[in-house]
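lol ok so funny story. i was supposed to be doing the assay writeup but got distracted and ended up predicting the structure for this chain instead. priorities right. anyway since i did it might as well share w the group, maybe its usefull for someone
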Amino acid sequence: MLSGDHVFILLFLYRYVRLAVNLVAFCLHRPIPLPENPRLTSQNVTVVIPSLQGDGGELCETIRSILATEPHEIILVTVEAQEMRARKMAKESNFSKVRICSVSQPNKRRQMVRAIPEIQTEITIFADDDVTWPSTILPWMLAPLEDEQYGGVGTNQRLRRAERPNLQQRIWGYLGALYLERRNFDCASCMFVDGGLPCLSGRTVAYRTSILRDKSFTYQFTHEEWLGQYQLNADDDNFITRWLISHGKKISYQHHKQAEVLTTLEDNPKFLKQCLRWSRSNWRSNITSMFCDRRIWIHQPWSAYAVYLTTVSHWAILWDALLIYFYIDMARSWARDTQDLGLAMLASWIFLSKFLKLLGHYIRYPADFLLLPVSILFGYFHGLIKGYAMLSLNVTAWGSREGADDDDAYRMFRV
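and the output, tada:
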């Protein structure tokens, strides 16, 4: 039977070897460089934007930022009820390179599949309708795809911060920014170590069109089952990431300022609903990767430990409590001064570990360091969100966007 000393050491190593290695990996990670004589150019790219509303100021800004990169074409896929509004927006805004398509019911997978037969280029990029691209993004996204072994490419993401936010918006926006910062850190670190990452985020992601056109892919994409009981039509980016891995395609993550996408998140209590949706998606996808597909254990063992396993094993308040409890148990026979010093060092390390991977954010926005206690408390609270998500994996509702749940009954249903 393990002693308290051994339990403490094992808990400490299990939790913090991951952080230490990822910190080094993040510092060493470099994106695949731009080729001197690229074969692929912006004219080899079609951008597909699934959208519910089909118009609006935010969508117009998204389209303008994408058009500035000079892709071959943009295909905007909305729902039939909004198609005329989308066409009117494209005409009034003089978006001549934007083609409008529609589906009968709102569902992102349906919208993506609707666009695929229309694509005439070698590379397809899916983008959300609330992102802003830098004009330099396409060469960086295309660089890995010069190698035929690569099937998908993601980029790093930052929050588009609100102008003159009130205190509530500032706090929620801060938590959203840290979510993206943490994701960038995990993706870059795992990519350096073993070429893996949690997921090629659908906010902006490039794929080879030939992969998307594969009949087997299309069938599986539109007939995914969850636990053999439900047909799942949510979590599209998780599915495609798993598909690439299971079919021997490399994936890349271009962590570079010139490939940095700006996006929006809720800056109000609806952010909690976003967190719940992301947590459910992580549970479903990571369980599938670890216990159904299982390829990650061989092909991406570090990512399996550093990212996938955290879904089931990382509960911040529980880990911190266990570490302190077993430290106290281990140090019972020590001198009081030594006990106090060791406890202070442990508490300091736990505190330090809460923001080390987020240091880049605090360097860019030093004033946000004052909100650090908010992020620590939210990290503990997130355990409740994660626990509730685990108990409600058959729910796919967004709850944070108007019209987004009109197709909720279709996103997951019993087979």
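The chain has a mean pLDDT of 93. The first strand starts at residue 45 and ends at 50.
back to the writeup now i swear
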